[in-house]
Design brief:
Layout: H1 6-15, H2 20-32, E1 50-51, E2 57-61, H3 69-72, H4 80-91, E3 112-116, H5 129-145, E4 151-155, H6 157-169, E5 186-189, E6 192-197, H7 202-207, H8 212-231
């Protein structure tokens, strides 16, 4: 059997049909579309991870947006959450530009890889427990294959729970009691540092629960952790 690779994970994610409910939903959305995107050919498939294969930083979201990643085929691309996230990544030096509108828009990530707990857009943005479980092996493989990984940023409590399950499943220690989500929370889980932030969902950003300066500070702390690691 040949060795695993991020390219192999991407190919398997894109071809995945493990969750009948998600397959039906993502394909129905791709057929019916949103009026503003009626001229788009929707992706309508699972959305794989994206970024630098030598990344020291892994960002984990919840799932693709129905008219964002499910439309464009790239994580956090073409929706309001992505606008918020990529502005912060650009300011922190992880992205070459502050916008992400399509797969061919020239966006490049440096030292950063972005994935999701669930790879298909779920109805009402609520994956089921079994859907999380079916997607977990992809995240486990990414964690193992990102061999220079130093920092994991989780976007929201559900992404944090998914990461901790994957971290334990790949043979790493998880503290007891299990870390409880809080915005700005930081935990040492050798050899990585785990940092949590509210998800940049439209609900969180429009209500002010998460502001752009708050997210900027999270990625400033990511850079601080990396700088300390490099100075050792």
């Amino acid at each position: 059997m040949s060795s695993d690779s991020l390219e192999r994970v991407v190919a398997e994610v894109v071809a995945c049909r493990r969750c009948p409910r998600l397959v039906r939903y993502r394909e129905r959305v791709a057929r019916t579309k949103r009026a503003a995107f009626r001229d788009w050919e929707y992706w309508g498939r699972p959305v794989p991870g994206f970024g630098d294969p030598d990344a020291e930083v892994l960002i984990i979201g919840l799932a693709p947006a129905a008219h964002g990643g499910n439309r464009t085929g790239r994580t956090f691309t073409g929706d309001r959450s992505g606008e918020f996230l990529y502005r912060a990544l650009h300011r922190a030096g992880f992205a070459n530009q502050p916008t992400s509108t399509s797969k061919d828009d020239g966006l490049v990530l440096r030292d950063c890889y972005i994935a999701a707990a669930v790879r298909c857009a779920p109805p009402q943005n609520k994956p089921t427990r079994i859907e999380f479980a079916r997607c977990q092996p992809y995240l486990e493989r990414e964690v193992v294959l990102l061999r220079r990984l130093r920092v994991v940023v989780v976007l929201g409590a559900l992404a944090m729970q998914a990461f901790l399950r994957a971290w334990r499943a790949t043979g790493h220690d998880v503290p007891s009691p299990v870390p409880k989500f809080r915005h700005g929370g930081t935990w040492l889980l050798p050899p990585i540092t785990l940092i949590a932030t509210y998800h940049p969902s439209q609900r969180n950003t429009q209500t002010g629960r998460l502001t752009q300066p708050m997210l900027d500070r999270v990625f400033e702390s990511v850079q601080t952790v990396r700088s300390k690691d490099h100075s050792r």
